[in-house]
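Key result, reporting period 2: structure in, sequence out.
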């Protein structure tokens, strides 16, 4: 199935975000092990202290995850804009309004666009 640059960028951004989250989760689990704690210990006043300590220890992982999230949101916005651009003109405004309001519809459009073979749309509309 042929993908355009926008679809490929979204795939890469999603993979980078998943990798960053996995690295952050691993760092968090290591932090808990090093402190001889479990997630159950992260309540009340312990939470504030441990959260601040974790942020110092995992600054790089937290920054990487935040950067990956920002990149994913940009790739998602570009993908949605591509999807709207290939929709019939009479429903574009409705799509834009719906995407601002409904997360579920946004996810469905993204899922549909990721299954789209760009070879099935006219060349002039491909990104």
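The corresponding designed sequence is given below.
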């Amino acid at each position: 199935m042929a993908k355009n640059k926008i679809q490929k960028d979204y795939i890469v951004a999603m993979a980078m975000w998943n990798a960053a989250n996995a690295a952050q989760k691993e760092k968090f689990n290591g932090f808990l092990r090093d402190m001889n704690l479990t997630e159950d210990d992260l309540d009340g006043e312990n939470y504030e202290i441990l959260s601040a300590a974790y942020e110092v220890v995992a600054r790089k992982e937290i920054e990487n995850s935040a950067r990956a999230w920002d990149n994913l949101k940009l790739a998602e916005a570009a993908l949605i804009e591509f999807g709207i651009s290939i929709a019939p003109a009479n429903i574009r405004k409705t799509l834009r309004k719906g995407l601002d309001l409904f997360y579920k519809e946004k996810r469905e459009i993204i899922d549909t666009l990721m299954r789209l073979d760009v070879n099935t749309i006219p060349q002039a509309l491909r990104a």
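The mean pLDDT is 86. The two ends are 15 Å apart (CA to CA). This case is discussed further under Risks and Mitigation.
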